[in-house]
Amino acid sequence: MSRKCELTGKRANNAYAVSHSHRRTKKLQEANLQSKRVWWTEGNRWVKLKLSTKAIKTLEKKGLQAMANEAGLNLNKY
User: Under DSSP, is residue 39 helix (H, G, I), strand (E, B) or coil?
Assistant: First the structure.
């Protein structure tokens, strides 16, 4: 599976690493992904997801079911 947040869809970003002499080389800025077990109250069980840290903070505010509905994610598969 690719390095992608399962709720928000965040992935790597193409960028340049700029040296002191201003030479530019390509690099990838990877998303800060964490494997996280989240309690899903509607399903009454734990769900293991690969989430970005921004998604984890939003998850605490909105809730798992609301974010899964926005992403079009079926939590029964996880």
Answer: strand
Query: What confidence score (pLDDT) does residue 1 get?
Result: 59
Say if residues 2 and 18 touch (Cβ distance below 8 Å). no
The sign one gets for the Cα dihedral 40, 5, 35, 33 is negative
* pLDDT: which is higher, 7 or 1: 7
Domains of the chain: 13-77 (2.30.170.40)
CA atoms within 13 A of residue 51's CA, in its CB half-sphere = 19
Task: Map the chain to HEC letters.
Answer: CCCCCCCCCCCCEEEEEECCCCCEEEEEECCCEEEEEEEECCCCEEEEEEEEHHHHHHHHHHCHHHHHHHHCCCHHHC
